[in-house]
Specification:
mainly alpha; 5 helices
Length: 159
């Protein structure tokens, strides 16, 4: 089981490094201060604030993952019903691929490397901020791809 944990940590490191150009490679001090002011006004316990942020990110990521899962099924059905060689089949395949990538983003957000030892991790605040940024970008991309799929279906129905 140790080899699996080691492999998973290496994969997560690679995945985080791959998406860092999209998200931003670092969390600057302004974002940290804004996070502290936004969350600290409601509660003076930093561990509780960070835990609340991570819980909210998990809930939002789960909702996005549910939507993306349904849209993968819809894209697969539309792809299979399209004529071979048509431009719609290609567009549905691209949209299906985009939804699969969004699934990876959501699953990454749901993975918690800290385990149950959240209070003894000094970098947990940065991880919470990073997860919030990735979750925001994932939500925006999900919205855009869903609108693109709706427009594609509209053109398919019209043609």
């Amino acid at each position: 089981m140790t080899w699996l944990n080691t492999w998973l940590n290496k994969f997560l490191f690679w995945f985080d490094k791959s998406i860092s150009p999209v998200v931003g490679s670092s969390i600057d001090t302004v974002e940290v201060r804004d996070f502290q002011l936004r969350e600290g006004a409601a509660d003076s316990n930093p561990a509780r604030v960070i835990s609340s942020s991570l819980t909210t990110t998990d809930a939002r990521s789960t909702a996005i993952l549910q939507h993306v899962s349904i849209m993968i099924a819809v894209c697969g059905l539309l792809y299979s019903q399209s004529d071979k060689g048509s431009c719609f089949r290609f567009v549905f395949a691209v949209e299906l691929f985009c939804y699969v990538l969004l699934t990876l983003f959501c699953l990454r957000l749901l993975l918690d490397r800290s385990g149950n030892d959240r209070e003894n991790r000094p970098d947990l605040q940065k991880e919470a901020l990073w997860k919030e940024k990735v979750q925001y970008i994932t939500g925006q991309l999900t919205f855009l791809i869903t609108v693109a799929l709706a427009i594609t279906v509209l053109f398919k129905v019209i043609s």
